[in-house]
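Aim 2 progress update. The chain analyzed this quarter is reproduced below.
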Amino acid sequence: MKRTIYLFIDESGNFDFSKKGTKFFVLTSLVTSSPSFKRYALLNLKYKLLKLGINQEYFHATEDKQFIRDKVFSISNKFKNNMIVNSVIIDKTKTKKKYHDPNVFYRETTRILLYKIFKELKQKEVNNVVVVLGAIFTRDKQAQIQKVLKEYIKSNFSVQFEIYFHKSQSDINSQIADYFGWAIYVKFERGEFRPYRLIKSFIKSTNPSILTEEPGGSC
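Predicted structure tokens:
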């Protein structure tokens, strides 16, 4: 029986290649065929926090307090058999200058991530893909990202697909993707291993990639 899969993508780091920029750029995806599976547990957590006088509008790893992060990661373990997490970690200090243009850099990083995702999905019965990304991008950036996604999916995966840009506050899966992406990012950027250890079993691969002279970089 064929099915629909939902793909949520989150990014950490920036496109600044100067000494002021981040050392790493991380693009993380969450793939699931059941986006509502047990997600009520995080909604319950939100309302418990509100009852305690904590103004928790939504979950965002960089802003949430440590005890809230611990609870979100603990609850997320209930989704272990329900989702697949992939991540591309780019060491910007080793990235060739030809990729320093933000548009080129994002395009190539996205292609590496899509390769990882669809390499697995080709082995499964999937006939529809719904992609949800953050709405933080400008319209021009959204158009560029949409073009990359459309070209890749059409060329490599013959399925129907939809692409949406939603505020992460509106979707609990986008918030989970944010948490996982943050945990991977701080491991490489700041050497903080504790968050990563809490989600390590979810991650397919976290070997840093380098954008070399070869189109698409290493996968």
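Confidence is low (pLDDT under 50) at residues 212-219. Residues 3-202 form a domain with the Nucleotidyltransferase; domain 5 fold (CATH 3.30.420.10). These observations will guide the mutagenesis experiments scheduled for the next reporting period.
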